[in-house]
Design brief:
By secondary structure, this protein is of the alpha/beta class. 38% of the residues lie in helices and 17% in strands. It contains 13 helices and 16 strands. The strands form three sheets. It has a seven-stranded mixed β-sheet with strand order 4-10-9-8-7-5-6, with helices on both faces. Strands 11, 12, 13, 15 and 16 form a five-stranded antiparallel β-sheet that branches. Strand 2 and strand 3 form a beta hairpin. Helix 3 runs antiparallel to helix 10, helix 7 runs parallel beside helix 8 and helix 11 packs parallel to helix 13. The longest helix has 23 residues.
């Protein structure tokens, strides 16, 4: 795993990228993508020989790290046996992946509809809910991200929605609980849960319960800030949905498959939704795969009525073989328990210790290997280190923080005024401590922008 510098190859890779690759979420002439030469475990490296500890897990998907040999071998074996096949057939890798996933989902979520990723999973979950109920509207939280396809981007709460918001997509946004920046002026978790639930029910009543097909929530919001819900909130949402005949959808695309120290984040709250979306960690992102886990009641809706949806590559054999191998690796190597232990004994205590010494840290929150640091200019007022949706000079403090982290060999996950700590679920104790040490240095740079 020792990087071998090869600047000439790196320059060629970079030149071809800049000439031909159109990057997502970017002004094309204002970006400078790093040319990556390789990756293994919790690290990746560039063509200059610089190695980085990846505290982003790609885009929070390499739950077992890069290049796990058992998953690579499973993909190779599947490619040699049956590299692809249409979704209408029963294929061993597809059947086995569905079985392994269904064994781990909560309650009766025993039917699996495969997609190519998380956004398509959300698209199909909302379609299922609308067809099951015959109702048009879906409610989602402002602080959320559900994907970039047509329905998913409208469900998303953050500013990436704005350029694509049709204003007529049948989506209504509401405030979910977030005590640190409470929209309900709460002073305790219990109060925040009660007031958030009342707000949700008021929204349903005024929108018309008979018009609402589903409520969709990230079990623990990911990109929006890793805000763990207060006790009782998700159970309260479940009760409200049951009372009004509304489908409850949990988005576990980012939080699922060990990230929170449980197979699914819902396991922390003893809540079973009607539909659950997944992707990312299901096969550590080695081959694109997502899906919807479906309850018995909703599956029954389509027992004799065709479901009007599908994808050419649904349940692709290579992706499913990677999922089978990933789930088996997670079981054999105790990866879910490892994520819980690292969160409890290393990341949680370590991040709280950093917060005690750095005035730029307003709050530490998370579980497992799913954490966020809320960076602020002023702890007393909780003013964010940079404004909401900041860019350019307004975002300079966070840019300086990120540059300091990279200079110390840490690749950070940064969104607005937060840095997320989301290494692979099998990150070692030594690697986690290495990352904390690099964060310590970078936070000193952030401290320079506090009052």
């Amino acid at each position: 795993m020792t990087p071998q510098p090869n600047p000439q190859v790196g320059a060629a890779v970079k030149a071809a990228d800049r000439a031909h690759v159109f990057h997502s979420w970017s002004a094309q002439e204002l970006i400078d993508p790093l040319a990556v030469a390789g990756a293994e475990g919790s690290y990746f490296w560039d063509y200059e020989g610089n190695r980085y500890l990846d505290f982003t897990s790609g885009l929070v998907f390499t739950n077992i790290g890069y290049q796990h040999p058992k998953v690579v071998a499973a993909i190779q074996e599947q490619a040699a046996t049956l590299s692809t096949f249409a979704p209408a057939f029963a294929i061993e890798a597809r059947s086995e992946a569905a079985r392994l996933i269904a064994e781990r989902t909560p309650g009766d979520l025993d039917k699996i509809f495969f997609t190519n990723g998380g956004a398509e999973a959300v698209e199909n979950a909302t379609r299922m809910a609308r067809l099951h109920t015959g109702r048009p509207k879906v409610l989602s939280a402002y602080r959320s991200y559900h994907g970039a396809t047509a329905a998913a981007i409208n469900l998303t709460g953050d500013p990436r929605r704005w350029p694509s918001d049709s204003g007529a997509a049948g989506v209504v946004h509401f405030w979910a609980p977030f005590l640190y920046r409470s929209p309900f002026h709460s002073d305790s978790e219990r109060q925040e849960a009660e007031r958030a639930l009342q707000h949700l029910e008021d929204t349903i009543v005024f929108e018309g319960p008979g018009t609402i097909a589903a409520v969709i929530l990230e079990t623990i919001p990911g990109t929006a800030g890793i805000m763990t819900p207060p006790p009782g909130y998700l159970a309260g949402v479940r009760e409200i949905c049951d009372r009004y005949g509304i489908v409850f959808v949990l988005d576990e695309v980012m939080a699922g498959f060990g990230r929170t120290g449980k197979w699914f984040a819902a396991d922390h709250y003893d809540v079973t939704p009607d539909l659950m979306t997944f992707a990312k960690g299901v096969n550590s992102g080695y081959v694109p795969l997502g899906g919807v886990a479906i309850s018995a009641a909703i599956a029954e809706t389509f027992a004799r009525r065709p479901y009007p949806g599908g994808l050419t590559y649904s349940g692709h054999p290579l992706a499913c073989a990677a999922a089978v191998a990933t789930i088996n690796v997670m079981e054999e190597e105790g990866v879910v328990d490892q994520a819980a232990r690292i969160g409890e004994t290393v990341l949680g205590p370590g991040l709280r210790e950093l917060a005690s010494r750095h005035p730029s840290v307003g709050e530490v929150r998370g579980t497992g290997v799913f954490w966020a640091l809320e960076l602020v200019r002023d702890r007393a007022t909780r003013e964010p280190l940079v404004p909401y949706n900041a860019a350019g000079e307004a975002n300079a403090p966070m840019a300086a923080f990120g540059a300091a982290a990279k200079a110390n060999g840490l690749w950070p996950f940064i969104n607005m005024n937060r840095t997320h700590v989301v290494p692979p679920c099998n990150v070692t104790e030594a690697e986690a401590k290495e990352g904390l040490a690099a964060l310590d240095v970078a936070l000193t740079v952030a401290d320079e922008h506090t009052v």
